[in-house]
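Reposting from the mailing list since nobody answered there.

I have sequence plus structure tokens for a pair of proteins and want to know whether others read the tokens the same way I do. The first protein:
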Amino acid sequence: MARSISNIRKKRGRGRPKIGAVPVMVRLLPEQAARLDAWRKNSPDRPGRPEAIRRLIDSGLTSDKQKAEEASVLAARAADRVVDKTIPPKERERRKIALIKGPKEFRDIREDLPKPKKA
């Protein structure tokens, strides 16, 4: 007797297909779940709980150096919009750096900058 379907391929297994992700079950206290849901509601795209947890883990594991680099890039973009485009490029770059670094009085109290070595 012939098969009813001629293009039968390898039988597929049961369950969800493997995508390389590691399943992790997390139990949250009610207060933690409420704070997570509040964070999700304030996000522009309103992610689900699993995606919100993934994003929070990524942001928590991002090093301070990476965060500082990202902040520097954002500050440079903002300074580009503010600095006068009619001045020469060298002066424009000097002003941009002055805007990003801030006044000397504030640089002395910033904790993210290395302290100058005393002679």
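The second protein, same order (residues first, tokens after):
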Amino acid sequence: MDLLKMKEAMAQATKMKEQMERSMAETFVDASSGGGMVTVRMNGQKIIQKLTIDPTVITGNGPSELEMLEDLITAAVNEAARKADDAMKSNVQGLLGGLNIPGL
């Protein structure tokens, strides 16, 4: 591969990377746990945009209520991260136009 073709390929890769980053910043996923008691909105870059907690979750003051709330938040954040990963994979496949590249 000559230098010009390599330079063009690098420019194309950089452009695709920037396009994917913009797309992921504009992609949002929602996930909840505890039957909707905790809801997380996250963008495709895995930055939490909003965390909503149903007030009924925090009516008690005991350690068991706090532990339950921590578990619900953890579950909702993990589910949102999984959905963000799925969205990223979908966006990458769209950008590649159906190319089958091992490892992606």
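Reply #1 (J.P.):
I read it the same way you do. The helical segments are 3-25, 63-95.
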